[in-house]
Every structure is written in C-alpha cells, then in structure tokens.
Amino acid sequence: MPRVVVDVMLKPEILDPQGQAVANALPRLGVGDVASVRIGRRIEIEFTGEPDLDRAREIADKLLANPVIEDFTVRVEADETADANS
Amino acid sequence: MPRVVVDVMLKPEILDPQGQAVANALPRLGVGDVASVRIGRRIEIEFTGEPDLDRAREIADKLLANPVIEDFTVRVEADETADANS
C-alpha cells in the first residue's frame, strides 16, 4: 500500500551538531572523503484510504516539523519494505 | 551535487512509541483517516568526490543504524533543496 513520506531536515543555515559528530567520527573509521553529514527525520504516514498529500502536509506543519528551524518535503512512496538493507 | 541518503527506520515488528504518540494526537487535529505513523531518521551524506554507495552503507551499518532493531536503505539523490516545503 502506498504511504506518504515526510522528510524533515534542519534548514541549511542551522547548525547540526548531531551530524557533525558523525562526520567527525568518520576518519576514525578510515573514511576521509565525506564533506558533510546532516541528520533529520523521516516519517511514514499510512492512511486508511487513499494517501492524502494535503492532509500529510497539514500534519507535518502542525505536528512533525518546527518551521522556524526545519524544512519538510512530502511525497507518496510505494511500499518498499522488501528493499530493506539493500 | 548529488548526495547519498540513508533512511533508518525501526523494523516493522518493533514498537514505535514516538510514532504512536503522533498518531494518537491526530484525531484532536480533526484527522481521522490515518492508520499508522512511524518515525525514523534520514541522514544526508555529502562526499567530496563521487557519491559512494558502498562507503555509505558501511557508515550506516557501523555508525547510523542499530541493526538489532533498525533497517536502513541507502540511495543516491539529486540535490533538491529548492523543493523544500513544496
């Protein structure tokens, strides 16, 4: 069943200490070619009927994202749980 | 510049209290047609050169996901910051 995916990321001008911590840990893993890491949230919303993008956008705006420091995108995605870890 | 996106979600059999809290709040917003909400993480990795999926998979496995309770997917994505909030 298709679901709506909401991606919430910090705005580009907002510092992301969590992502920076990961980026700083990478050289210790032998990874030297990463320029930046940013960490946000991915929210999967399943509707009882047809996926409703406008409704999802309203939910994201009111409940999932802080519009002062975060941007979000909303999209419909086919079910792809079978692809996990691929 | 293309970036690698790692999506980390709790395995389907693991309870997601954070997502459930959002789902339970929805009727108060007048939204009654949502079956479930699950909340995970979205990590954007920018490489200095070409995006490297194998490298990203290694980073996700060692640093970003807990393979006991979480699944992750890795993919290359074109830059789409201009689409924010659309």
UniProtKB/TrEMBL annotation, chains A, B:
<dbReference type="InterPro" id="IPR036604">
    <property type="entry name" value="PurS-like_sf"/>
</dbReference>
<dbReference type="GO" id="GO:0005524">
    <property type="term" value="F:ATP binding"/>
</dbReference>
<keyword id="KW-0658">Purine biosynthesis</keyword>
<comment type="subunit">
    <text>Part of the FGAM synthase complex composed of 1 PurL, 1 PurQ and 2 PurS subunits.</text>
</comment>
<dbReference type="GO" id="GO:0005737">
    <property type="term" value="C:cytoplasm"/>
</dbReference>
<dbReference type="InterPro" id="IPR003850">
    <property type="entry name" value="PurS"/>
</dbReference>
<protein>
    <recommendedName>
        <fullName>Phosphoribosylformylglycinamidine synthase subunit PurS</fullName>
        <ecNumber>6.3.5.3</ecNumber>
    </recommendedName>
</protein>
<comment type="similarity">
    <text>Belongs to the PurS family.</text>
</comment>
<keyword id="KW-0963">Cytoplasm</keyword>
<keyword id="KW-0436">Ligase</keyword>
<comment type="pathway">
    <text>Purine metabolism; IMP biosynthesis via de novo pathway; 5-amino-1-(5-phospho-D-ribosyl)imidazole from N(2)-formyl-N(1)-(5-phospho-D-ribosyl)glycinamide: step 1/2.</text>
</comment>
<dbReference type="GO" id="GO:0006189">
    <property type="term" value="P:'de novo' IMP biosynthetic process"/>
</dbReference>
<keyword id="KW-0067">ATP-binding</keyword>
<keyword id="KW-0547">Nucleotide-binding</keyword>
<dbReference type="Pfam" id="PF02700">
    <property type="entry name" value="PurS"/>
</dbReference>
<comment type="function">
    <text>Part of the phosphoribosylformylglycinamidine synthase complex involved in the purines biosynthetic pathway. Catalyzes the ATP-dependent conversion of formylglycinamide ribonucleotide (FGAR) and glutamine to yield formylglycinamidine ribonucleotide (FGAM) and glutamate. The FGAM synthase complex is composed of three subunits. PurQ produces an ammonia molecule by converting glutamine to glutamate. PurL transfers the ammonia molecule to FGAR to form FGAM in an ATP-dependent manner.</text>
</comment>
<dbReference type="GO" id="GO:0004642">
    <property type="term" value="F:phosphoribosylformylglycinamidine synthase activity"/>
</dbReference>
